[in-house]
Amino acid sequence: LRGFSDYLYHSPNFFLPPFAGLRVATFHDLSVYRYPKFHPPARVTFMRREIPKALRRANHIIAVSQFVAGEISEYLDFPRERISVVPNGVSAAYQPRPAETLRPRLSEYGLEPGGYTLCVSTIEPRKNIAVLLEAYARLPSTLRQRYPLVLCGDKGWRSEDTHDAIERAQRAGWLTYLGFTPEGDLPLLYAGARLFAFPSLHEGFGLPVLEAMACGTPVVASSRSAIPEVTQDAALLDDPDDLAALTAAMRQGLEDSAWRDRARQRGLQTAEAYTWDACAARTRDVYAQVIAGRASAAP
Q1: For 252-266, what is each residue's pLDDT tens digit?
Q2: Helix/strand/coil (H, E, C) string of the chain?
C-alpha cells in the first residue's frame, strides 16, 4: 500500500492494515465479542486484537445492518455518526423456478421439488443446528418422512455432538446431509424447498434467509439479532432456544397453506429491495462522503 496515500482503501471484512490514505472497513458481526464460545480460540484472539486497531484506523465504518451498527456503537464505543448501514444483496440467481426445471438436478441429490425442508449453514455452534435437529425430531413421523430435513454446509468446528446427531437422523431416514454444496446448486436447492429453517443464535445480517425469500420459499427463523430486521414481517420468527415453539413454527410452515402463500409473496417483495447493485451504489456513496470529509477538513 505504500505510495497510494491519495487512494481510499476499503476492507470488506473488518481488517485494516496501516495505510496513509483514507480507510473504510465493513463489519459483518461482533460475535467474537458477544459469543466467543462459538468460535475457535485462535480466531477470537486474532479478531479481538485486530478489531480495535481497525476502529482506530478507520475514517468510516460500514455495517451490514442497523443491528451491527448498534453493536459497534454501543459495545465498542465507536461514534455512530461514523457508521453507515449498507445491507448485503442477493444475486439474481436466487429466484422462483418451476418444478420441471428443478427436477433434473434435484434428483441427483435424491430430492423432489417441494418435498423437503432446507437449512443452509456451516455446522458450527452459532447456527444452532443441534436444536434444529431436536425440534424437527418432534414433528409427527409422517410429516418428517414426507418432508425430510436437508442440511447444506461444511463441517465447521466445535460440532462433534451435532454431527453424531446428524448421523442418527440420517439413519432414521428423515435427514439428508449434503455437506459442502457447490454455489451453483444452492439457488436450485432453495427454490425446490417447501420450507427454509434457520434458527441461528446470532447473525449480523442473515443472508441465507434473504436467499430463501428471493426464491419464494417460506422461512422459519430466529427472532434474534439482525434476522427480524432483514426479514421484516415475511418470516415466522421464534426464540431459537424454545424447542416447542420451533417445532410448532416448522409444522405451521409445512402445513398452513394460507400462511405459506402470505410468506411467499411477502418474502419476494422484501427480497426485491436487497440487490448487489444497491449495495455497490450505497458503498460508493460512503466513499464520496469520506472523500468529501477529507476535502472539507483540508486547510
Answers
A1: 999 999 999 999 999
A2: CCCCCCCEEEECCCCCCCCCCEEEEEECCCHHHHCHHHCCHHHHHHHHHHHHHHHHHCCEEEECCHHHHHHHHHHCCCCHHHEEECCCCCCCCCCCCCHHHHHHHHHHCCCCCCCCEEEECCCCHHHCHHHHHHHHHCCCHHHHHHCCEEEECCCCCCCHHHHHHHHHHHHHCCEEEEECCCHHHHHHHHHHCCEEEECCCCCCCCHHHHHHHHCCCCEEEECCCCHHHHHCCCCEEECCCCHHHHHHHHHHHHHCHHHHHHHHHHHHHHHCCCCHHHHHHHHHHHHHHHHHHHHHHCC
